[in-house]
């Protein structure tokens, strides 16, 4: 290779990021080298800072820079609602929507017989514990509408019923969605859950 | 946002890389935080190293970690052939093919009337200079088969004719290519340049 060892190693490492392959990693590294002052050095500095400070919230497993994340630390968010999500990315998606004012609980995945992931591999015991000890009135199951997601939702519902109100996100036609492009399952769900105008 | 300021800033900066958008930058940052020891810290370290050491070769404009790149420094590569490419990425592509044993000259783009890029914006004067001072017998124009690339090739040919043998990459059907999927221009070029079996 013409590029020297460190540059090759950087390209190889960047290619391991999700969404990047060898070709886009090469493009990204060339882009960085060209924009050294504006982008490369600040990015390297920021990576060091975040690599040193990022941690999981001990309560909800959200990613932040302190042991208890901003949401768990905020008294305003203690409204009795607890939203259960599979992944930190799902939590961030909920926050971008900006409509949920309660707290979260990140499971860290879904139950999966194939991958041998049981309740103890996820943060389900911690969830049961939080429902017992925190002042929670409603648990909103915001799991993905996949088979594993729904299996997990049913398992959690079994664990928590009688203790708390359980709800789940509505299923139906997405905003801006065209019927012609929707799958049969979504149309069936939307029809079954139809509501009066 | 639930994630704290540094993490948000890192996502925003990563989203500026070519090939990444806001969504894939978020995925990449979450992936990095999860693989802190194996990936995140080593990547940040390597970025610092490369940001500090990467530079353009003063001779050919290849990217490396010294003022004169490995190819220009190697006596073995001084075989009288000089391959002219638009971009460092093209140089790397040629090197991956591993078949060219001479040296390179990176133009840094193509002539473009629309973008007001003339010969002096590119490294064409330096190319003429190298042909005069170095012991070069053949200049291989490996420019992209685009309108701008071919315009640039013709301009360089005008500057250098009589001084040196000029060649260009062959145009035709790519290896593994299916006629049905090729554009008309490629088929025309391949037919015009047909050769005896």
Quickly describe the structure.
The structure is a homodimer of 197-residue chains. Chain A is an alpha/beta fold and 197 residues long.
Detailed description of the structure:
Two copies of one chain form a homodimer. Chain A has 197 residues and is an alpha/beta fold. Chain A folds into two domains: 5-53, Orthogonal Bundle (Helicase, Ruva Protein, domain 3), CATH 1.10.8; 76-168, Dna Topoisomerase Vi A Subunit, Chain: A, domain 2 (3-Layer(aba) Sandwich). Helix content of chain A is 45%, strand content 11%. Chain A has helices at residues 5-14, 22-34, 36-53, 70-73, 88-97, 124-133, 147-160, 184-192, and strands at 55-56, 63-64, 81-85, 103-106, 138-141, 165-168. In chain A, strand 1 and strand 2 form a beta hairpin. In chain A, helix 1 packs across helix 2. The longest helix of chain A is centred in the first third of the chain and has 18 residues, at 36-53. Chain A is globular. The termini of chain A are far apart. Chains A and B meet through helix 1, helix 2, helix 3, strand 2 and helix 5 of A and helix 1, helix 2, helix 3, strand 2 and helix 5 of B.
